[in-house]
Every structure is written in structure tokens, then in C-alpha cells.
């Protein structure tokens, strides 16, 4: 017999528990008062106000997804605090952070899939539960009960917090490669730790805006939540059948991808980007620039087809990206191809004197045959400040036209985001500053204990909070369930203390490292992080699109700290990096909410994972930079290692350090700065159009996303883009609309399986044959693995511009 747990909404409910029990018992259910629980058989607690799941219903919005696709079942008795959780959580945090740092130095940055780590955690957790005896004190300590959902979620969150490549390591790598090294390894380690933890605490203080509302869907969590629910599905007989079917699909797809990826990754790398046009015409540089894209910084990859899921899903699986976001990105993608080809073949900004795609600074003596990398060392003093006399003697550096296109379009998109969110999503954002309203401040100071931020909430205050959440229509149903089942929030003072400690450590480290960033600049970095987190965090939560804020952070630093490239690097580290980390951890807070993990447990595992991962990031960065320095400084790198991210970071740091000569009004690249102003006005016509002729189409197009994608292809391997959109539109349009039953049951599981199978194999190959263990073992050259000194991987012509 199935069970449904019943509990009234609150003390003001018109329907009593007795009546609910009577009605449920009439329908043949056993009833308890543990709280709202929706079992997998589809039974429901009417007073929860949540519709019964219908696998054949087309999902239209966030509320549909969190109630129709994700389970609302909860068991508060499940215990996450086990030896298994700590052992596997720490182990996977270390493993994931090492792997992610390796991937960061690849020609195309690949992000370690949480699905990959979740699958490993499940296999190891079940293994430990099966083989460790449960008898005796030791047995009860190491294996107290079967491996459960909340234990698994806690492991996943700890691994996720660790599996981030800290931008602080990029700043340290740049200082090591281009500035003669940094003075203190200990300070470098603590700098990485503080920058990562600071982002986490900023996200935590804004969780009322970024996590709790139902609109903040954080789409990347959907395949992962679906996978966790499948692994730990209901034990009811009919639910077991569903779980078995989903697990069978998962393992079949994951196994198939594990085997398949050996070919595009190692044996047959031509499959990374098959271009019919390049195969037909192998000696045309125009074809290379437009249709090529299988090698790093080769071309735009237009109409190329990729068969390598690692690159198709390098920025996240297209199977979970919302259709609206995908449409906007596709519009921007087509615009990017037109823009870049127009810039280059129109020879705008002397485009044809430099490589088609590159992030380096170039000397003005470059021509269409030889491109000379700018000698940045010659314009710096021993203290790493810009020497004005040397700068004017050597001349102002040049950038490639495509890189300028990226800077201009992304700057337009960045400020457009502020306007778009204020016009279309003001109600979702205003909670972020409601605390500053006079009425709220009056309430705060009316409390005689207002200054005691360390004071724990009383039971009455906790009940009052739960009641407010239940009555708030914007609140996620999963969070309501947690409040009704008695979960206690992690106190705000936990977040505040972690923020203050990480901030103080960061300030000390910056002075020890001779960063040239003043104390007031560090304060401003924290202020900007909060503002950016509010706007761009909300956009990421709603659309799944995360904005790259690195250019604007470096621009701000350039004007605040002119002539100080190191200050630029570290200011960006404590703005862009902290915000990126904050977005990741806000997403993970939402995952904890979807799986009903106690907030105090979520806080603990995220802090621990964050610190462990940051430490391992530094270790791997130091090792890679020491062994691959020459390759990391080269423009193209190899198909194994690349320093493109460090080069881009350093390029912008130097360029913005001489902003008055390069980007200010009247300078040759003034449109990079003017773009910020233009962006504020770009979303306004659509909003006014909706006011005059109201229609859903006006709000469908998000010009902040479109503008960013106008510069999307400025770097990396671009041959996978067409396949990315084909898969995404098939899943989010055809399957969601015309096969909703299959979509609701299997779409996110298949997405998880594709990621899991692929990244398991990539990890093995990294250490077995790609040189991750010290020695590379390349596959013999043949038609499917061509000599890239003669042709690119897709047989497009190699660039004739010699970079020196």
C-alpha cells in the first residue's frame, strides 16, 4: 500500500488534518502527519497546492518543471552525516579540482560534469554500503545504513564546490609566466582560498533572491536532480519498475558514449569537426576562417558537424538549456559569423595584418605575412608598472579585429543585462535591496537584539518564517516542503563570518604578493561583486545563461588603477572570479533545495569542498606552469595544452592598464568603451513595443544574451556549435512539445548519461595517453588523425601568417 503524508498549510488552514486523513483513507492510503510528501505513484496532498504530476503534460515554465519533472517526495529521517559522505566527498572534491585545473589548460576549456562525479559517487557509495560490515561499533560508524539520497547529494555538493578552476590560479600563472614570478607561495595559496570562499559567501547572503524563488530554476540542476532521484527512487513496487527503466537507459547511453569517445578523442580526431567545404577545398584561407574550427583558434566552424560530445557540451549540455535561451544564443551565433567575416575581410582595425583569431597583443609592425607579438616586458618598470616613455617609444599595441568584436559585443550585452532585468524582472530582483527600505530598517532596529547577528532563531521565529514562505507564491514548492518538515536554515551569521574572514585573508595576501592593488580597490571589488551577483545571478538562475564579466572587471580596474597590470589581474580575480564561484554555489544551493538536503549540511559541505578544491587548484597550476611554460606562452599551443586563457587575461590587463591610450574616447579602440553606454539602451525598444502592442514575443528576445553571442566564436574550437544547436532544438522543441512523456521521463537522464560516459573516458585518456601523467602517447598519423603541421584536423588550410 502506498503512503501519502498530510499536513495542513498552516494554522489558518480551513481544512483540518482529520478531514485530510479521512479523505485519504477513503482512497485507500495510509496516512501520517510527517508533512507534505508527494510519492512516486502520483498521490498528492491537496493542501500543498501542487498539481498532480502528469508525464504526458507539456511543461511550459519553471513551476511546471519543479512539480512535473522533479519529485516533491521527502523523507526527513534520511541522514547525510556519515563516514561515507566525508570520505567520498573529500576524495571527489580533490579528484574533480585536479581534473578541472588540467582542463583549464586545454585548447578548449572543458568543465568537469557534476553528472560524472555523481555517477562515481553512487557506484562507490553503494560499494561501501555493500562490503563494509554493519556489526559492532566500527561497522555502525562506517556503514550505519544503506546509501541514501541525502548522503549522495552532500557528496555531490562537496565535489562540486571543489571542482572549480579558480581564476586566482590564472592570475598567479600570469604573474609566473609574464611578470617574473610571485614572491610567496604561502600567500598564493591563501589568496586562492579566500577568493573562492568569498564568492560562496556572497551567494549565500543573497540566497533569498537567487535560490528560494521558484523562478530561479537554475536549469543545469535538472539533469542532475533527475539522476539523483533515479538512483534513489521510491521503493514502491510500481516506482521500482520506473526507476529500473530509467537506470537501464542511463547505463546504456553512458556505456555507449564511453566506448564511442575513444574515436573522436584519440583514434579518429577528424570527427571533432567534419567540414564538407574544407574537404572539398583544402587550400583556401577564406574557407579555413569561415568553415574551419576543429583546431584551436582555427576558424568559425560554420556548417561543420561535430561527433565529439566533449566539445558539443563543453559549456553545458544543450539538452537542459531553456528553449528561449537557445533561440537567443542562435540569433547571436549567426550574427557573430556575419560580424567576424565582415570585420576581417573589410580589413577593419588592420584586421588582415594579424591572425584571424587570437587573444594576444601584437606589435604595429605586423603585416599580412608576419605578426609580431608585442613585447610587454619592454614597457614595464621592475615594479611591474607601465613606463610611459617606453610605451610611446614602442608604440600602442594592436588587437585582432575578431577579439575587438568580442569585446564590443560582450560589453553591449553586459550593460544591456542591467536594463533588461530591471524592465522585465524587477519583481524578481527587488528582494535584494528590500532590506534597505525605511520600513524594513525600522523593523530591524525595533528588535532589541538587532546587533546580535550570532543569535540563533527561536522556535517561534522559525515557525513564523515557515508560514511566510508557505504564503509566498514566488517561493519554490521544494523550499516550502523543507520548511514544513522542520528543516532549520543555516544562520545568516555563519555566512557573514565566513565572508569577513575570507575578505581579511584576501586583503593581507594582496599586500604580501605586491599586487599593487590598494585597499580601497579591494573594497570596491567586493561592492561590485554584490551588484553583479544580484543582476547576473538572477539572469543565470532564470535562463541558464552565465555572463562572462571578465572584460568589464578589467575595464573598471584599468580606469581605477592606470598603469598597473598586476592590480588589474587581482582586482579581476576578486570580482569576476568571486562572482563566478558565487554563481556555481548558488546553483548548488538550489540543488540542495531540490533534493531537500538540510541547509546546515549544505553550508558545511560547500565550505569544506570550496577550501579543499582551491588548495588542489593551486598545486596543479604550479605543476603545469612549471612543466609547460613554453607551450603556454605560444599563440596556438598544441592539441593537448594551451595558455589561451592566461594570454587573454594578461592581454586585457595590459590593454586596460593603458586604457587612456587604447580605449578612451578619441583612441583607436574607443568603441570598446562606447559599447557600455549603447548597451543600456538596447533593450528599451522591445520593452516600449510591448507597452504599445502587448505580446509575448517582445520579452522572448533577450538582447543581453544575443549581444554576448555576437562575439562567441573569438577563441577555441568552434566546429561543435552546429551540433550543439541541433541537439538542443531537438530536445527542447521537438521532444518537449511533441513527445512530452519521453521528455519528462528521459531527457535529463540521457543528458546526464552523455556527460557521465564522455568525461569518464576523457579522464582516463588524459592520464593514459594525453600526457597528464608526464608522457604523451599520440596515436599514429593517418587520414583520420592528420599531421596538423600540414592541415588542420578538418583538413582546412593552415594559416599562412607567421606569428613571431
From TrEMBL:
Alphabetized Pfam families for the sequence: OPT (PF03169)
NCBIfam families found in the cross-reference section: OPT_sfam
Gene Ontology biological-process entries: protein transport
Annotated segments matching region Disordered: 1-27
Annotated source species: Pseudozyma hubeiensis (strain SY62) (Yeast)
Protein name: Oligopeptide transporter
Recorded topology in the membrane: Multi-pass membrane protein
Keywords (A to Z) from UniProt: Membrane, Peptide transport, Protein transport, Transmembrane, Transmembrane helix, Transport
Highest taxon listed in the record's lineage: Eukaryota
Cellular localization per UniProt: Membrane
Amino acid at each position: 500500500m502506498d503512503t501519502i503524508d498530510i499536513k495542513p498549510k498552516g494554522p489558518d488552514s480551513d481544512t483540518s488534518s482529520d478531514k485530510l486523513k479521512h479523505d485519504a483513507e477513503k482512497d485507500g492510503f495510509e496516512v501520517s502527519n510527517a508533512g507534505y510528501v508527494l510519492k512516486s505513484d502520483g498521490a498528492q496532498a491537496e493542501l500543498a497546492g501542487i498539481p498532480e504530476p502528469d508525464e504526458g503534460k507539456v511543461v511550459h515554465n519553471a513551476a511546471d518543471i519543479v512539480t512535473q519533472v522533479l519529485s516533491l517526495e521527502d523523507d526527513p529521517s534520511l541522514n547525510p552525516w556519515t563516514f561515507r559522505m566525508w570520505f567520498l566527498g573529500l576524495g571527489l572534491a580533490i579528484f574533480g579540482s585536479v581534473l578541472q585545473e588540467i582542463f583549464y589548460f586545454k585548447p578548449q576549456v572543458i568543465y568537469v560534469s557534476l553528472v560524472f562525479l555523481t555517477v562515481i559517487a553512487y557506484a562507490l557509495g553503494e560499494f561501501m554500503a555493500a562490503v563494509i560490515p554493519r556489526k559492532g561499533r566500527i561497522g555502525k560508524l562506517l556503514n550505519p545504513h544503506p546509501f541514501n539520497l541525502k548522503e549522495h547529494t552532500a557528496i555531490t555538493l562537496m565535489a562540486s564546490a571543489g571542482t572549480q578552476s579558480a581564476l586566482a590560479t590564472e592570475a598567479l600563472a600570469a604573474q609566473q609566466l609574464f611578470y617574473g614570478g610571485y614572491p610567496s607561495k604561502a600567500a598564493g595559496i591563501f589568496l586562492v582560498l579566500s577568493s573562492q570562499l568569498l564568492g560562496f559567501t556572497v551567494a549565500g547572503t543573497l540566497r533569498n533572491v537567487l535560490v528560494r524563488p521558484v523562478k530561479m530554476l537554475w536549469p543545469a540542476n535538472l539533469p542532475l536532480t533527475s539522476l539523483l532521484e533515479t538512483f534513489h527512487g521510491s521503493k514502491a513496487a510500481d516506482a521500482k519498475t520506473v526507476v529500473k527503466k530509467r537506470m537501464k537507459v542511463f547505463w546504456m547511453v553512458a556505456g555507449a558514449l564511453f566506448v564511442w569517445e575513444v574515436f573522436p578523442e584519440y583514434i579518429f580526431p577528424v570527427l571533432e569537426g567534419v567540414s564538407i567545404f574544407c574537404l572539398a577545398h583544402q587550400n583556401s584561407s577564406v574557407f579555413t576562417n569561415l568553415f574551419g574550427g576543429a583546431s584551436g583558434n582555427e576558424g568559425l566552424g560554420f556548417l561543420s558537424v561535430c561527433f565529439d560530445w566533449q566539445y558539443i557540451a563543453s559549456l553545458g549540455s544543450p539538452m537542459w538549456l531553456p528553449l528561449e535561451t537557445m533561440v537567443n544564443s542562435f540569433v547571436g551565433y549567426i550574427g557573430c559569423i556575419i560580424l567576424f567575416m565582415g570585420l576581417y575581410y573589410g580589413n577593419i582595425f588592420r584586421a588582415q595584418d594579424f591572425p584571424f583569431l587570437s587573444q594576444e597583443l601584437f606589435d604595429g609592425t605586423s603585416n599580412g605575412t608576419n605578426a609580431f607579438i608585442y613585447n610587454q616586458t619592454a614597457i614595464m618598470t621592475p615594479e611591474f608598472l607601465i613606463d610611459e616613455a617606453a610605451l610611446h617609444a614602442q608604440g600602442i599595441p594592436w588587437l585582432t579585429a575578431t577579439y575587438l568584436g568580442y569585446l564590443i559585443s560582450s560589453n553591449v550585452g553586459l550593460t544591456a543585462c542591467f536594463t533588461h532585468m530591471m524592465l522585465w524582472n524587477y519583481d524578481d530582483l527587488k528582494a535584494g535591496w528590500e532590506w534597505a527600505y525605511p520600513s524594513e530598517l525600522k523593523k530591524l532596529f525595533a528588535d532589541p537584539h538587532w546587533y546580535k547577528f550570532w543569535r540563533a532563531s527561536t522556535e517561534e521565529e522559525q515557525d513564523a518564517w515557515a508560514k511566510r514562505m508557505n504564503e509566498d507564491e514566488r517561493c519554490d514548492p521544494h523550499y516550502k516542503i523543507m520548511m514544513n518538515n522542520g528543516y532549520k536554515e543555516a544562520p545568516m551569521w555563519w555566512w557573514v563570518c565566513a565572508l569577513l574572514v575570507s575578505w581579511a585573508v584576501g586583503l593581507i595576501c594582496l599586500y604580501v604578493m605586491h599586487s599593487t592593488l590598494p585597499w580601497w580597490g579591494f573594497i570596491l571589488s567586493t561592492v561590485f561583486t554584490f551588484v553583479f551577483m544580484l543582476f547576473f545571478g538572477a539572469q543565470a538562475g532564470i535562463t541558464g545563461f552565465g555572463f562572462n564579466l571578465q572584460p568589464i572587471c578589467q575595464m573598471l580596474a584599468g580606469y581605477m588603477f592606470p598603469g598597473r597590470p598586476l592590480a588589474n589581474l587581482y582586482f579581476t580575480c576578486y570580482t569576476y572570479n568571486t562572482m563566478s564561484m558565487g554563481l556555481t554555489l548558488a546553483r548548488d544551493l538550489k540543488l540542495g533545495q531540490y533534493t531537500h538536503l538540510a541547509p546546515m549540511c549544505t553550508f558545511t559541505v560547500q565550505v569544506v569542498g570550496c577550501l579543499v578544491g582551491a588548495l588542489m587548484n593551486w598545486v596543479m597550476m604550479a605543476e603545469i606552469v612549471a612543466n609547460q611554460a613554453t607551450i603556454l606562452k605560444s599563440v596556438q599551443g598544441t592539441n593537448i595544452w594551451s595558455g589561451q586563457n592566461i594570454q587573454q587575461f594578461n592581454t586585457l590587463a595590459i590593454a586596460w592598464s593603458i586604457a587612456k591610450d587604447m580605449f578612451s574616447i578619441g583612441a583607436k579602440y574607443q568603441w570598446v568603451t562606447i559599447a557600455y553606454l549603447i548597451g543600456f539602451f538596447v533593450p528599451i525598444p522591445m520593452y516600449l513595443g510591448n507597452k504599445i502592442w502587448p505580446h509575448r514575443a517582445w520579452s522572448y528576445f533577450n538582447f543581453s544574451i544575443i549581444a554576448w553571442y555576437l562575439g562567441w566564436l573569438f577563441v577555441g574550437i568552434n566546429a561543435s556549435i552546429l551540433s550543439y544547436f541541433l541537439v538542443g532544438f531537438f530536445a527542447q522543441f521537438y521532444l518537449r512539445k511533441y513527445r512530452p512523456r519521453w521528455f519528462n521521463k528521459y531527457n535529463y537522464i540521457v543528458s546526464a548519461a552523455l556527460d557521465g560516459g564522455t568525461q569518464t573516458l576523457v579522464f582516463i585518456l588524459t592520464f593514459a595517453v594525453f600526457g597528464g601523467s608526464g608522457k604523451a602517447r599520440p596515436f599514429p598519423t593517418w587520414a583520420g588523425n592528420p599531421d596538423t603541421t600540414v592541415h588542420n584536423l578538418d583538413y582546412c588550410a593552415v594559416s599562412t601568417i607567421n606569428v613571431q
